[in-house]
Amino acid sequence: MPMPQKKVSFLLRVQQALPTLHPAERRLGDFVCDFPGELASYSASELAALAQVSNATVSRFVKRLGYKNYEEARRHARAEKQTGSRLFLTHSTESAGIQSVPAHMEQGIANLEQTFLSISDSQVNAVVKAMLEARKVWVIGFRASHHFANYLQWQMTQVIENIVSIPASGQTLGEHLVSIGPDDVVILFGLRRRVAGMELLLDQLRRTGAKLLYITDEGVPAKNDVTWHYRCQTLAPGPIFNHVAVMALCHLIVTRAIETAGASGRTRLRDIEYLNESLGEL
């Protein structure tokens, strides 16, 4: 049975059409490639004004892309906007100049405040208690999330012996998922843009019976089918996501784990430092 054809994305349609477009249409195409969110958000007349082309050029442009009309093209762009691509969240008005340091600071502070308004001490305590008592803790992340998974695993190693970040280079998830059980804890980072198989992975993790902490950006609706779901605000004044709140959440979890582990945690920390000194590694 032949595999179903994957639907061509909105941006790919534009990029493939660029070489065949007339000059005004090409100018509009270049503008849309840089700021696809504008087409998703604005009317045809508004887009024409932003790109400095005529309304007729917009009409010809969308038809050259294979759409019946502007509304059909805009619906496709809106659907793609939901994937979380930063391109769709950047507007042409933001590209006029460099964003100031205060603007970045203010957005970072706002992200922290909004993130931690929805995370209580009792929730953090429950996560940490489950991790400290687990047979094994598994931390999973892909793309940008991969680095946060590695960071959290590295820091948590100071108080938890059986913790691993998966998958490592050259490994598949199946080699690890087969070992996850109900006495384990899984921390899954699902920050934009998420990999296509995220929902399949979530389904499999739920079947293991392990306690599951799902850490995402604000674009994921609250999930009730995982043990805990923390949604981090990632808004930014520039063209990439702001992950200040994600890092702060990792720091909070590790710090709370060290505090909760008490004497045993301090003993492990002390022994780690002694060995590092003895081996002259630091």
Automatic annotation (TrEMBL):
Q: Which residues form the HTH rpiR-type domain?
A: 8-84
Q: Which SUPFAM superfamilies match?
A: Homeodomain-like, SIS domain
Q: Which one Pfam family would you cite for this protein?
A: HTH_6
- InterPro entries given in the database record: Homeodomain-like_sf, HTH_RpiR, RpiR-like, SIS_dom, SIS_dom_sf, WH-like_DNA-bd_sf
* PANTHER family per UniProt: GLUCOKINASE (PTHR30514), RPIR-FAMILY TRANSCRIPTIONAL REGULATOR (PTHR30514:SF18)
What is this protein's record name? MurR/RpiR family transcriptional regulator
Q: Which organism is it from?
A: Marinobacterium rhizophilum
The lineage is: Bacteria, Pseudomonadati, Pseudomonadota, Gammaproteobacteria, Oceanospirillales
